[in-house]
Amino acid sequence: MNSRTMSTKDVIDIALGTIKADIVLKNANLVNVSSGEIYETDIAIARGLIVGLGSYKGRKEIDATDTYAVPGLIDGHTHIEMSMLSVREFAKAVVPRGTTAVIDDLHEIANVLGVEGIQAMVEEARTTPLKVFCMAPSCVPSTDPSRGLETPGAQIGHEEIKELLSMDGVIGLAEVMNYSGVITKENEVWKKIEVAKAFKAIIDGHAPLLSGKALNAYVLSGAGSDHESVSYKEAREKLRLGMRVMVREGSAAKNLNAIAPLLNSIDTRNCMLVTDGDRTLRDLKVEGYLDHVLRRAIEEGIDPVKAVQLCTINPAQWFKLDDWLGSISPGKCADIVLLNNLENFEVDSVIVNGTTDWAPRTAYTYSYPHYGKSVKIRQLQPDDFAIKLERAKKARIIGHIEGELLTAEIAEELSGIDTARDILKIGVVERHHYTGNIGVGFVKGFGLKTGAVASSIAHDSHNIVVIGTNEEDMAFACNRLNAIGGGIVLCSEQKVVSELALPIAGLMSDKGLDDVAQKQRELEEQISEMGCKLQAPFITISFLALPVIPKLRITDKGLVDVENQKIVGIFYN
Amino acid sequence: MNSRTMSTKDVIDIALGTIKADIVLKNANLVNVSSGEIYETDIAIARGLIVGLGSYKGRKEIDATDTYAVPGLIDGHTHIEMSMLSVREFAKAVVPRGTTAVIDDLHEIANVLGVEGIQAMVEEARTTPLKVFCMAPSCVPSTDPSRGLETPGAQIGHEEIKELLSMDGVIGLAEVMNYSGVITKENEVWKKIEVAKAFKAIIDGHAPLLSGKALNAYVLSGAGSDHESVSYKEAREKLRLGMRVMVREGSAAKNLNAIAPLLNSIDTRNCMLVTDGDRTLRDLKVEGYLDHVLRRAIEEGIDPVKAVQLCTINPAQWFKLDDWLGSISPGKCADIVLLNNLENFEVDSVIVNGTTDWAPRTAYTYSYPHYGKSVKIRQLQPDDFAIKLERAKKARIIGHIEGELLTAEIAEELSGIDTARDILKIGVVERHHYTGNIGVGFVKGFGLKTGAVASSIAHDSHNIVVIGTNEEDMAFACNRLNAIGGGIVLCSEQKVVSELALPIAGLMSDKGLDDVAQKQRELEEQISEMGCKLQAPFITISFLALPVIPKLRITDKGLVDVENQKIVGIFYN
To answer: Cβ separation of B221 and A37 shorter than 8 Å?
Structure first.
């Protein structure tokens, strides 16, 4: 990232044309996001920077006639960990498609590995062609630690926020999800906001469905952006209150169709297009990343130049990166995407830091703490998942609702696991500190008829979540997960059916997009064979342990009544 | 300025509506510069901040029905000293007209009093309702000091820039006028740029008529804005290269008419309207300040909302003040102008820091160095202006060209002052360090038939410049200027005809707009009576000593051949 701070004195003679540029893109149709125009020009590049527009000569000249030159795309809000790819492999997947920078909320790895994990990810990011700007996660763990509802791997308090904001590469406070804490003036969340303000750092918000006076109060806190709007009205209200509105178009959450009419009718300088990390590996492979979102925006009738601004100069200005990124003009980093076709965003080639030869060739040794060993549990036995039945009483059962993240609380009598009624056992095994904590309960609606499935992706604390048709397979799946150092394990009759190792924090693979997507497909096919017909079974599992989305969840401490933020028993009194 | 850093936690309950706001503007037509719309809403204000939009109750409620609420205007580029008013009196003149913030290049006072002068002006500014953000002047003195062409009061090198950028209230490096130095890689100007970059400070540019590769090179340096465009084409080229284009509309330089068609056809987020300090006292009184420029823009057919953006959110974004200024939304400073009429910008009332009661009432003691004593010369005698005539040779005479800042170099034989041929004597008397330096020469085209005129406003070094029909009156005018501590003196037969004292650095009055404008009119009437019929006689005098605008100038070191940057004799060899 050194071209941002380098003196440009040495390239002045190249701008003046007295020395040839390193590369000149001849006769490109420049999508000029500063003036909002498209016109033909040469683009001269030297030492990684754009040095001139007009007519230039270069040591290397690329005929760009009939191609469009747009600035490298910037995803204003993502979570790389959600791709299950390492930063290096993620970069390999998205840069060739035109995304050259992302603003990353390292929320997931922070829950597992804390500040050290973030540091390792920042360091890994530096070895990639992708520019990764990190936001210090604001809500780790997801619940108030004083309530003791779960055991995360790490906590990020306001002191850690201070530490993170002092780190090179960390530019702000990530989505302040605890909007109710902001409005009710909870101390810790306000301390984090005040630390961020003292650093003059960017503060991203997260205010789903917040409106009226509550939204005014939230904006007043300093949280300056939002990526949760699902309607025209919601987005307009946020924009009017001065927020930056990030329009999310992911694999699951698709908000563009609803919000495009707004983008077509108002000043869009304060709007962006983002993925929010919500791109499945399949979609990433087949459709693309932010390039896909851009195509979708143009499909929705947004003027192409405006659409490009939404993912270049607009995020650059919000994140105060516009001195270096987001536009093609002298002094800016030469991150340029050449397109054969603007409407379809058909990539011809990508230039990063002034070169087309940006793919890193050297091998890399991942420096994450507990790399390949992030699951720390003792050998489990079937008895660890035993539940003392109270037959006279009804049980609290977690009810999965297909297509939603909300769960139901179901009250039924039971005599243990009952695959006929689709009542399975669910466990959450603490995996960070050898506490031995195991929460056990029942879940309905998952569909598994045989075996068990365990995953170390379990928002937000990322303990092991395991669902099974019998305790033997549940214990086996967890022990196997321990052996492979985190990931996803599907087993039946104490044999592995399919598995995906995620050696980085139990969240990310060290393999490439094709391999991981292939493994994931295999897992999905197998779990379907075993009876689970859900649309996204592994995402479903991963959210069952998140005690901030109603109604009933489970953590390593037991069942959680989310609305009352307390641990409850399996059986009603 | 403390509402920028204050915690907003204490006003959350007001935003929530559980506690009444201090003031609520009821049913205002809000000009929402974030979304680019106008619609009706209440605006709730508390502790100097805007806390909510929507429907609010206040301890004080102002019926704003049928009025327009716009953010306080921000002049992105001015020089307060050029008004001859102190910051306090300048604020009194412009705030009631809707300008609540200015970005000020303290170039003039820096030439006289250096860092201490800037500090005093920053301190004075803090006592006013006007928000003054200072830019560290980049070219003090105007010429390369190593050439010894003039004696300024102070120098601002890169070390002083560092000192200034560390000061609270100084936010950037002012217009880098030395564009040729930038392009030819002169060390000192580059050091200043690199200091500013290290501070992540704003860097304003100044690139009149620069184009093509030279402009690319200049932009590459980091100078990010320009306020010198005089044509559609010039402004468009700068905008396309990523510069912020400040469109200047002053009393002398009027660029709006030429550039308005561009503003009507492109994305204007990177454009602003500015005065460049170019408002005569008369125009300030009669037409107004930035409010006048805004009216002019609307007259030129620019959409009113866009026009308001050009002097609110746009400068706020460029100067990184948009977390606090430039829009009306929760958390922003409550600097609001209520208008009876948007098109004519007819001000109903101005709210500053959340109150209409913003006029400072306490007396103020100016703390400028050498206050009222900034002229430091010994008693002058007529002989000090003697010139040894060389009758066989032609003399180099400074030729005034009416309506231009350029001067001519006229070669004529002469036998001394000759009012019949309009050849007068001109002197520049060093006034900062008692050096005793006096440069003497001849000037043609000024028209004075009797007496002399002396001024301590003499760009950029602000020594005394004196023009006379005889040496007795020249000495008298200078001595009188010394006695009154700087300003402008018009005398005849060794009697004061009219005078204006400028006790602050010999540049600024401590009187109000009405008084100073009245004095200036008197001086203009009197000098016209005495034969000088120029449009702007005192501005003309003030530029005759500026050795950076061709062709022939005079400093305390003698005549200066500007193009060759050297001192030349009065007589040709």
So the answer is: no
B159-173 mean pLDDT: 97
Residues B274/B502, Cβ–Cβ less than 8 Å: no
Residues A117-134 have a mean pLDDT of 97
The residues that bridge with A173 in the sheet, in sequence order, are A136, A203
Whether residues A52 and B220 touch (CB distance < 8 A) is answered with: yes
What's the token pair of residue B449?
């038939």
Query: Phi and psi of B536, rounded to 5°?
Result: -135, 75
Dihedral of alpha carbons A504, A508, A514, A518, sign: positive
Q: Do B219 and A329 count as a contact with CB atoms less than 8 A apart?
A: yes
Model ipTM value = 0.94
Dihedral class, residue B353 (left if φ above 0, else alpha if ψ from -120 to 50, else beta): left
**Contact assignment for A49 to B220 by CB distance below 8 Å:** yes
Model pTM score: 0.96
Helix (H, G, I), strand (E, B) or coil at A14: helix
- Which of A8, A266, A309 lies closest to B35 in CB terms? A266
Residue A362: what pLDDT? 82
Q: What is the DSSP letter of B378?
A: P
Residue of A nearest to B193 (CA): A7
Residue from the list A9, A220, A242 with its beta carbon closest to the beta carbon of B15: A220
The CA dihedral of A140, A141, A142, A143, to the nearest 10 degrees, is -130
Beta carbons within 8 Å of A79's beta carbon, 6+ residues apart:
A104, A105, A106, A107, A108, A276, A277
Tokens standing for B316?
């706020």
- B470 close to B452: Cβ distance less than 8 angstroms: yes
| Mean pLDDT of all residues belonging to chain B | 96
Nearest to A11 among B9, B197, B220 (CB): B220
**Which is nearest to A193 in space by CA: A228, A168, A226, A157?**
A157
Separation of alpha carbons B563 and B43, rounded Å: 57
Of B235, B167, B199, B201, nearest to B321 (Cα)? B201
Cross-chain residue pair B222–A331, CB shorter than 8 Å: yes
> What is the rounded distance in angstroms from the CA atom of residue A38 to the CA atom of residue A305?
8
Residue A2's pLDDT is: 66
User: What residues of chain B lie within 8 A of the CB of A49, using their CB?
Assistant: 220
